[in-house]
Amino acid sequence: MLSFALAVRFSLEICLVVVALWFPWHHLTGTAAMAGSVALTVALALTWGNFLSPKRRVEIGGLARLLLEAALFSFAAAGLYSRGHWQLAAILIGIAFIDKLVLVAVEGRV
Questions:
Q1: So what's the pLDDT on residue 76?
Q2: Which of 9, 30, 31, 71 is most buried, with most CB under 10 Å away?
């Protein structure tokens, strides 16, 4: 069960990266779209890698990690929703929530 939940978590991380690339591309034009996509994706990757990944460099505590993770998924869902993809936004939030519940239940920590 843990392996499946971690595989789902990795898939959700990939979804975050895809939304970070896609969102500026559809809200900006020209060079700004490309620069915005790259900047947002790099910021997301650095944030996830430094604060949320299993091999994170900075320990911020369980509650802060939970809130940061919820914020990232909420921003991604808001980006999808703003472009009219409310079904994808709901699926992303729903799967992220359920997967987090499973991980907490299996691992016993936030």
A1: 95
A2: 9
